[in-house]
Amino acid sequence: MEGDKSSGAGAGGLVLLNCFVSPFGNRVRIALKRKGLAYEEKHENLAPKSPLLLSSNPVHAKVPVLLVGGSPVCESLVILEFVDEAFAGNGEPLLPAAPCARAHARFWASYVDSKLPECAVRVWRSPKGAAAVEEGRKDLVAVLKTLEAELGAKPYFAGDALGYVDVALVPFAPWFLTYERLGGFSVAGECPALAAWAERCVRENECVAKSLPEAEDVFQFVCGMRKMLGLD
Predict the structure, then answer these.
(1) Peptide bond preceding 96: is omega within 30 degrees of 0, i.e. cis?
(2) I need a surface site. Which of 81, 109, 152, 207 has the fewest CB within 10 A?
(3) What is the pLDDT of residues 2-46, one digit of tens each?
(4) β-bridge partners, 17
(5) Which residues contact 38 (CB under 8 A, 6 or more apart)?
(6) 185-210 pLDDT, tens per residue?
(7) Which segments constitute the GST C-terminal domain (predicted)?
(8) Domains parsed from the chain with CATH numbers
């Protein structure tokens, strides 16, 4: 699978190890496309994991991994900051320039990772009707409402343009349909401003639109996972 072949390409020999539904890996896709960097993308299955992935990320054995001239950079938020720093001359920056604004962005990206995935997993990896589904739904809605409050009336989390927090969060948007169908709620109904923000990110930013899977494809992937786990 080939990535964007636009400017500055071969610099560093970039290879992204990713799974097409991974919000974490798709963050990196957005960042690379936003910077106009050429890269090769290698698809990873959840099992068995490739020898390349296991040798590149022996601690967590998870995607994403960005190989830069063969050297691995692991963990999606770390990779975003690496791309922003290593290719500062390409495209628009992800993080703001002011130290306080950078710290603020890092806080909210960390909040996304510390809260959203754990709640979401309880919704989609629990048996139908289990108490964990309802508990996960309540916690997930609370997290989304907290993020919506931080967004406020701004078009994007940092203001008028796509930035670090947007890139960290928007890859979860294709999963909203799965959360809704398995959790029995509507993201747009609970968090209309956040739903509108997700649509805006895709509509106004080609780097986002070209980096995210279709919501229905994510749902079908999850249905396959649930069958494999004996949940359906």
Answers:
(1) no
(2) 152
(3) 444 333 333 459 999 999 999 999 999 999 999 999 999 999 988
(4) 42, 65
(5) 3, 4, 5, 6, 7, 8, 9, 10, 14
(6) 999 999 999 999 999 999 999 999 99
(7) 98-221
(8) 14-86 (3.40.30.10), 99-228 (1.20.1050.10)
